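Dear all,

This email documents one entry for the complex benchmark we are building for the journal club exercise. For each entry we list the sequence lines for every component of the assembly. Then comes the predicted three-dimensional structure of the complex as a token string, followed by one or two observations. Please use this as the template for your own entries, and keep the labels exactly as they appear.
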Amino acid sequence: MNAVLDTIFEHRSIRKFTEQPINAEQLDTIIAAGIAASSSSLLQVNSVIRITDPIKRKALATLAGNQPYVESAAEFLVFCIDFQRHIQMNDKVKPEFTELTLIGAVDAGIMAQNCLLAAESMGLGGVYIGGLRNSAQQVDELLELPKYTAVLFGMCLGHPAQDPQRKPRLSPQVIMHENSYQPLDINKVVEYDQTMMDYYASRSSNQKQSTWSEQITTKLSGESRPHMLGYLNGKGLAAK
Amino acid sequence: MNAVLDTIFEHRSIRKFTEQPINAEQLDTIIAAGIAASSSSLLQVNSVIRITDPIKRKALATLAGNQPYVESAAEFLVFCIDFQRHIQMNDKVKPEFTELTLIGAVDAGIMAQNCLLAAESMGLGGVYIGGLRNSAQQVDELLELPKYTAVLFGMCLGHPAQDPQRKPRLSPQVIMHENSYQPLDINKVVEYDQTMMDYYASRSSNQKQSTWSEQITTKLSGESRPHMLGYLNGKGLAAK
């Protein structure tokens, strides 16, 4: 093990923060870490909106489905797909999607994970906020995003005021396949369901009785933000 | 600075590898690092296909647009969106896209970046291979991906046999905005174009004369894998 692996394996999402701010040098390092990540064909198709306005923070906390840590975290960053930059530079640029939207989403994940690990390596903690997509259009308007730029997710960062347990994950035998796709070994999911039952029953706060299978069935049975296609279409970022 | 930041800021894509294999413990650590990353709503919607079959490696190197390091790297991993797993578990699961495909793409980026940093922290190097999407359907068939599972990108990993310079990036003043989207400061791009000209002219191999603006204009003027929408539709992963 080394310090990088320690940081990676110690990850827990942090949703409670002290009032201590993140200093300017730390923030610069976090952003620089994101920018240092790989970028598909060096296109650099992401922008990050740092939200310092307390009124916007409060609005975003509500729009994300009432997640108060969006308001209370020391920093809140919004990661966007951004092809507006390229189009401003040259009117020959004619983005074609779905491919470019995929690049924007993958590269945002790569970039954001560098930001989160950089923060965690400095003793900070954070959590991804996909809930911004609950109200993508309203978030978009609040941040005055132009055409060809779209909101993907947010990230709360700050000094941790909680010490949650690490959440168990599916086994590598489920996630990794060799040479071709291998059918699911349902026994591995049964084992994992038991592990998650034990985890939820024993964790220090927010105890519940539920398996992973039950949770994902609930999550994936209803509608999952069906407005997202219309939103991306409206931004010029879908289905061409 | 700390060891995590050092690893993040020392990143260069590595495309030449020695013949030394990655040992089983290292590979297990790399995969475990990916699995330890954040997962949207703990859905865990990604699979990784490890390619050990030399015939498949050779075919993938060609399908990726003739990238020989896909064949020669010690390890080649293919990152996929995978909702097949969830659908197998419960027929009540009815994935809705575009949202879930976005989750799959963002989470694949987050997971893969943990894998790459874990590898880099152990003295290994690697490179993302978006070129697999050049021939998404053929790659899909080669890996026998079922419905609701789609190829996103690959990753070569191995012991570096080259020591390239770090590629300059756009300035943080271009990437980061505060509270609302800020128009592009074209002077920053002019500066960056000069920096990239100098970088390309001075680097040890593959010297060329080109600015970033010229490159991205070329990249974004033609068609960008227009088959991707049809591919995702065919997998049940688009436009609903």
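Observations: Strands of chain B lie at 46-50, 75-82, 125-129, 149-158, 176-178. Residues 48 and 147 of chain B are 16 Å apart (CA to CA).
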